[in-house]
Amino acid sequence: MLSDLVFVGTVGTGLFAQVYRYRRTSDAVHRQQTKWVVFGMAAGLGGLLSLGLLLTYVPTLEQDLLIWWVARTALPSFLLLIPLSIGVAMLRSRLWDINLIINRTLVYAPLTASLAGLYAGSITFFQRAFLAATGETSDAALVLTVVVLAAAFTPIKNVLQVSVDKRFREPVDPLASLKGFQGQVRAVGSLIDIDQVLSRLLDEATGALEASSAGIYLIRGGETSLVKSSPGWMADHSAQVVPLRSRGHAIGALHLGASSTGEPYPDELVNCLQQTADGVARLADVIQGFS
């Protein structure tokens, strides 16, 4: 009975920790990790519990050799889903910061040993103290021991953390910051290539609205000219015009041909496309201003 309570308590604590982490501290990547772990735990424990209840309430099933063999194979297989889901969470969401794992191991393993030794010494000391003073042991010794452990936990942890960081932390790569900035510059550079941005706008607009064709026109030097178009685009086929607006004035327009479905374009999609086009227009306006 006690082992069952410990098992349920352990599982319940783990589930509570995952829910708390998901709702309070996780970002998008961490939430994906949590989903995988919770899914594996729910599937594994749910299958284990369901099969256990079935065998308990229908004991005649175990009299069939085939059913008995399948059940005995399925029981550990359900538990295997838990480590498998954790492995998927690690691989798919890049949860493999081994330096952090080693750091935590080097801190918490000695911390656990220190607290265990402190507990054994404290409980022995206080029990003997009460025995000498009153002639019998007292539960107060356990309370005082817990107080000592609570008071000692943070100082011991901080000392161990400083020691581990000092001796085992990898040296800082002097080029890491520069390389990181280099990657950021390349990423931004690909975004501010106005030709690529306009091509992406054209592709996204035709794909999202299922337009038969489309063309982008920009106003340069007081003249409007076609700068990007999809195959088969003709100016007189324009069925929807989405202005490219920046700082209160139009710098061009996105023209869409008729919808391939034959239906009018939904207002919701057109409004969303207008907001996207205005963002592209502001970017194009800034780039042209610096060029």
Task: Provide a descriptive summary of the structure in words.
This protein folds into three domains: 2-92; 98-168, no CATH class; 190-290, 2-Layer Sandwich (Beta-Lactamase), CATH 3.30.450. It contains eight helices and four strands. It has helices spanning 2-25, 28-57, 65-92, 98-134, 140-168, 176-191, 194-209, 267-290; strands spanning 214-220, 223-229, 240-246, 249-256. A four-stranded antiparallel sheet has the order 2-1-4-3. Helix 1 packs antiparallel against helix 2 and helix 2 runs antiparallel to helix 3 (65-92). The chain is elongated. The N and C termini lie far apart (77 Å). The model has no long low-confidence stretch (mean pLDDT 79).
Compact overview of the structure:
This protein has 291 residues and is of the alpha+beta class. 70% of the residues lie in helices and 10% in strands.
The H/E string reads HHHHHHHEEEEH
State the strand order across the main sheet: 2-1-4-3
Let me know the largest β-sheet: 4 strands, antiparallel
Query: What is the straight-line distance between the termini?
Result: 77 Å
What is the name of the CATH superfamily of the largest domain? GAF domain
CATH C-level category of the largest domain = Alpha Beta
Question: Per the principal axes of the C-alpha atoms, what is the gross shape?
Answer: elongated
In terms of topology, how is this protein built?
Layout: H1 2-25, H2 28-57, H3 65-92, H4 98-134, H5 140-168, H6 176-191, H7 194-209, E1 214-220, E2 223-229, E3 240-246, E4 249-256, H8 267-290
Antiparallel strand pairs: 1-2, 1-4, 3-4
Helix pairs in contact: 1-2, 2-3, 4-5, 7-8
